[in-house]
Design goal:
Structural class: alpha+beta
CATH architecture: 2-Layer Sandwich
Strand order of the largest sheet: 4-5-1-6
Low-confidence stretches: none
Order of helices and strands: EEEHEEHHE
Radius of gyration: 13 Å
Strand content: 35-45%
Distance between the termini: 5 Å
Number of strands: 6
CATH class: Alpha Beta
CATH topology: Alpha-Beta Plaits
Number of domains: 1
Length: 100
């Protein structure tokens, strides 16, 4: 089992949209991937409520059967489109992929 976790800090505003609006849009887009990418076993997206100095704004937790399945997910055009949107709204990104 592969676990893929990504944390993002978001810009306060991008193209007139607030951080909260962009986070909600990213959440919707990420969750929609479960409808088109069969390799996803589990996908959860959460917004931070602690608002601490060291916290991220948005987190993705996902599970895949194998490293190959994770790679197919990452290469999928629908994932690429979401990644492009998030790339425009994020100021920082951290990722960890591990096997259990």
């Amino acid at each position: 089992m592969i676990k893929h976790i990504v944390l993002w800090k978001l810009h306060d505003t991008v193209e007139g949209r607030t951080k909260q609006e962009n986070a909600a849009q990213a959440k919707r887009q990420l969750e929609a991937l479960t409808e088109t990418i069969s390799e996803i076993n589990v996908l959860e997206v959460g917004h931070d409520f602690s608002k601490g100095d060291s916290s991220a704004d948005l987190v993705l937790y996902s599970e895949f059967d194998s490293r190959d399945a994770l790679q197919r997910y990452q290469d999928h055009p629908d994932h690429q489109a979401v990644a492009q949107f998030i790339g425009a709204i994020r100021s920082e990104r951290r990722v960890i992929d591990y096997e259990t």
